[in-house]
Fold this sequence. Notes:
Layout: E1 5-10, E2 13-18, E3 27-30, E4 33-37, H1 38-43, E5 51-53, E6 58-62, E7 70-71, E8 77-80, E9 84-87, E10 96-99, E11 112-113, E12 124-125, H2 133-142, H3 147-168
Amino acid sequence: xxxxxxxxxxxxxxxxxxxxxxxxxxxxxxxxxxxxxxxxxxxxxxxxxxxxxxxxxxxxxxxxxxxxxxxxxxxxxxxxxxxxxxxxxxxxxxxxxxxxxxxxxxxxxxxxxxxxxxxxxxxxxxxxxxxxxxxxxxxxxxxxxxxxxxxxxxxxxxxxxxxxxxxxxxxxxxxxxxxxxxxx
Length: 184
């Protein structure tokens, strides 16, 4: 178990809290657990499912202590490289750690009522692709969106660009990420 966090009671049941001050960009813990399929996730009882999506059809069945991290629409942590929880800003001792679940979701058929109580609460936890463009860009710039979702995001942009060009009668050649050094 990480020496930086502990599990405590909170208004949502249990939550993950900082045991010591955590600096912005600091790695907090690795979300560990068994890799399972979307079919296994759907077979779980609703209250038992605490998974993080790591691919279009794969999830991690998160084990403690990561199991207890709650959602916030104004998160103080984020998930990088699919499983690494990092601080988005300095976090105080005893502050609850939360990340935006939407940065790890591309399911299109699952939502959850949000109870984060943040000033900018969206009221609903849903897919990354359904977030506002401004919020998507902010999360992408911070590197806290699952890699497969980043790929989906740019594929959707390319598909929309191609469709728009087809409607306009323009001809576009396919562009790959490696062709432009500044492309994400």
